[in-house]
Amino acid sequence: MSGSPSAPADAAAGPASTAHESLPRAARRQVGALARALVTPSYPATPLFARSPRRWVRRVPYGVAMILIAILLPVSAQVLTSEYGVGGGVATLFGVAQSTPLLLSVTRPLQAWWIVLLSDIVCALTVLGATDPDRQVWPWPPAALIGYLFLLLALALREPPRTLVAVWLVTGVAGVALGVAFPERSNGSNVVLFVFSGVVLLVVGALRERGDARRRLAEQETISEAERARRTLLEERARIARELHDVVAHHMSVITVQADSAPYRIGGLPAEAEREFSTIAATARQSLAEMRRLLGVLRSAETRGERTPQPGLRQVPQLVEATVRAGIPTTLTVAEDVAGLEPLPPAVGLSAYRIVQEALANVVRHAPGAATRVSVSAVPAVPAVSAEDRSALTVLVVNGPPAGTPTRPVETSGTGHGLVGMAERVRLVGGTLDTGPLPDGGFRVAARLPLTDLEQREETDPS
């Protein structure tokens, strides 16, 4: 009984003990993290500047490394031989060990750093027996110092900040240890390397972090833009679905009424036929209820239900009149053959109205005062589906370049999604949309809306 309450208390004390740990314990933990960073190189071992789209930029690190090796190797061997009295073979070996890892640093800078550091320490211990110590730089010869700084530059471009701090501290500890062990030989090069290595690691590391932050920000902006476009498309599709609810609900209501009244309108029906009509009416009512529930899912919390009939092609003249009153010279042309297409399918009429509405709203927003022409005509369907259906509705809105001073937008209740909404409405009825700027600075919107029912088109073209 007494042991059970202590278990949660111990579990809760875990994070608290870490947060309130003693100073020596925290120091040991930090030292352990730095030691692990020194033996844990970044993965994967991709070359420096591998993400650059330019080929010559990706080859720059290799070129710089080869140039440094070609310069530092003979210089280091010559200096060790002439100034420090080291044998030619040993001096060449030290030159190779201190310079050739620069080529490895292009892909694995941490491993190259270990090789160069150990080579520099062994070289410093080897030249202790030089004849004239006052004229020689010790413990780090000039060529080794220069190569080491370039190696740290590659390291700062690749490894995380914790690793850079660990490398800097090890560099300082190695220099201090050699200076304390041989104070009569040390002449300050250990301090010079410690200071310059800190500057290189700090500056290059900060610049790399800044570049990574900018790249991540650009990637996030790209993702946000893609998500914004996707959200806009989904919102427009939901809006179109809500508008088409009235059209579908009307057809379902007609089916329900016809099925319910069939036994009264048609005398002498068998009992099986009456039951069949009753089943059709019940199914239609159930489908209508499901449609209402679907509409509730598509409607957001701030969206209010539509209480007015959905507009169609007959309301297009009202749009044009409102645009003219706003100061936009607009003309409407309705071809005579359009009258023969009546009654239009509700989805086609609604799509035509919304396309004209959004096109005129864009003229008001982006080309105030531009002369605009709206035309509606019927053209032969391509391909023709049947002899009874050989036409499609074409809606064309063309405006010239902006003229005059900006005016207040007259259209404030459009879809708000511009060309995305137009494309979705045209896709809904199986039509085509052509939009784009004109050479004179105007803009053109051309939509072709087939009048063939979707089911009939699918039977004719199964693909």
What does this structure look like?
With 463 residues, the protein is an alpha+beta fold. Among the domains are: 26-187, no CATH class; 313-460, Histidine kinase-like ATPase, C-terminal domain (Heat Shock Protein 90, 2-Layer Sandwich). It contains 14 helices and five strands. It has helices at residues 6-19, 23-38, 55-82, 88-99, 101-104, 109-126, 142-156, 161-181, 189-265, 271-298, 316-325, 346-366, 419-428, 454-460; strands at 330-334, 372-380, 391-399, 432-437, 443-450. It is elongated and about 125 Å long. It starts with 5 loop residues before the first helix and ends with a helix. The model is unreliable at 1-16, 381-390, 406-416 and 454-463 (pLDDT under 50). Residues 236-301 form the Signal transduction histidine kinase subgroup 3 dimerisation and phosphoacceptor domain. It catalyses: ATP + protein L-histidine = ADP + protein N-phospho-L-histidine. Keywords: ATP-binding, Coiled coil, Kinase, Membrane, Nucleotide-binding, Phosphoprotein, Transferase, Transmembrane, Transmembrane helix, Two-component regulatory system. Its EC number is 2.7.13.3. InterPro entries: HATPase_C_sf, HATPase_dom, Sensor_HK_TwoCompSys, Sig_transdc_His_kin_sub3_dim/P.
